[in-house]
Design goal:
254 residues, alpha/beta, 7-stranded mixed β-sheet, 8 helices, 17% strand
Amino acid sequence: MSPVDENAFDFAPKTETGGAALCIHGLTGTPYEVRCLGEALVGQGIRAVGPLLPGHGSRPEELSTISWEDWVGAVHLNYENLRANYDHVVVIGLSLGGLLSLELASSEAVDGLVVIGAPLSLKKPIPQLVGLVKYFVKSIKKTDGSDIQDSQARLQHPGYKIMPLGGVHQLVLLQKKVRSDLSKITAPALVAHGRLDRTADPRDAKLIYDGLGSEHKELYYCEKSGHVVTVDHGGPELSNRVADFVTGLRLEVG
């Protein structure tokens, strides 16, 4: 498992294949959550960039000042920067990052897409009430920490210890847009999910898979993992699976 490093990363391989990957973390998380994916990709000659999303890496209250459009704008900007230098760019996202990856792929011609633990919807009555409740209850404490089955990984997992409801509301608004645009996505896709996820329903992975307009798509479940699949049980196997998927796309067009 990678040492805890919450910072944004930009891994440049010694020998490049001509491809790059944008790796996006989850809500209240940090690039640490997708660092292991970046490490696996750079080992295959693929540049890997993991930015810090707006509202993260400072104070939880910052998330109450952020809109979902701010997240989308940051992801698009990072993608455009990579596209300016690479002919082949894939986007990879965990949880909120998965939703942002789907949003990007619905409007840009990404060369590949990896979605991990993306919550296509939240349990009732959260979507119906959070827009109002956020004005009275600013945040809720994560009593059990992050949704990770590996106890050691859960203890060292960085990120906000509370969940600002303003941020949750913006995620709900983003979910609505993503659901309506799924069929527009035609990029080759790998959809992964932790089978023991208590945050995002594992059935969402199949809904995403079925809703994509992609001809080439794969569905993969990590049987012993919770929500933050990348650092949980099976995380190394998932990283290798993602690296193989992305490398395979390069071989197909190479």
